[in-house]
Amino acid sequence: MPGVDRSAPAAEFCFPTSSRESWSDAVHLSGLLYDSPKARQEVDHHWQASGGPHIVQILDVYENLHHSKRCLLIVMECMEGGELFSRIQERGDQAFTEREAAEIMRDIGTAIQFLHSQNIAHRDVKPENLLYTSKEKDAVLKLTDFGFAKETTQNALQTPCYTPYYVAPEVLGPEKYDKSCDMWSLGVIMYILLCGFPPFYSNTGQAISPGMKRRIRLGQYGFPNPEWSEVSEDAKQLIRLLLKTDPTERLTITQFMNHPWINQSMVVPQTPLHTARVLQEDRDHWDEVKEEMTSALATMRVDYDQVQIKDLKTSNNRLLNKRRKKQAGGSSASQGCNNQ
Description:
This protein is an alpha+beta fold. The protein folds into two domains: about 15-75, Phosphorylase Kinase, domain 1 (2-Layer Sandwich); about 80-305, Transferase(Phosphotransferase), domain 1 (Orthogonal Bundle), CATH 1.10.510.10. The protein has helices at about 35-50, 85-90, 100-115, 175-195, 210-220, 235-240, 255-260, 260-265, 275-280, 285-305, 320-340; strands at about 15, 25-35, 60-65, 70-75, 80-85, 120, 130, 140-145, 150. The strands form three sheets. It has a four-stranded antiparallel beta sheet with strand order 1-2-4-3, covered by helices on one side. It has a three-stranded antiparallel beta sheet with strand order 5-7-8. Helix 4 (about 175-195) runs antiparallel to helix 10 (about 285-305). It is globular. Keywords: ATP-binding, Kinase, Nucleotide-binding, Phosphoprotein, Serine/threonine-protein kinase, Transferase.
């Protein structure tokens, strides 16, 4: 995570509100972040989003010193319910249904919708960042970890002073990429919720193999039976729209929330899924699945962040410079004719 020094002392524990009257619920004292611009950016983005629906709340932020280094100490609400998929794994023989999956995706989508409305792209939506408030049946699912969050602005490439010369569609501006990264993550999480295994995987034991990268870029995945035999076509269609290889073709969060499978989740069929059984059987490999998704998201961020679109006025493109000279010469000749 950018801005987080993992050598900072661990300080993870929960304590009741009786020790701090100003806090109304149990809280979580996170680890220390060694102070840096990236660390402050992470805290700023999370603070801005704090209080939004289905987002882990920051209660306080403190500045302190540790071994003469400036640190940031973040106090968040205590999420005692564990990770999303761990909760499903622990269901035992209790069936996990398609309707439950739709309701979970609606909750995650609500968090992303709030972030995108605040011009924040999370860029790290993955299983371990989706936590429940408690072990109770009515626990609330919330999104956390803003280490890769990024502020987005209106796409400057829509104005005539920018040009996407020879740039692939997926890098047509930071806003289009950053927010579409969250939509791809929603597609992967939804896929796993409905069957218990990911759409893309590595065959080599690496966190992300060349073959896995290729399958992600080409959108090579399927809906194999028996796990997918009873899943509704509406759900499969929504996944296809989220896992589009061209980020500009993926659904926006507004389109996602307006999809019938999401906004009419109460009428989604209560079809029992294979998810809980598959997650239990593959429990020993779950850490590998999480690592693969982490690596895939990291690869996406690198792919898009390293490409910058230059303003036409500052571009050093040789073909463009040649055209400029030609246009300048034509303009001079025209002025000469007009002066005669």
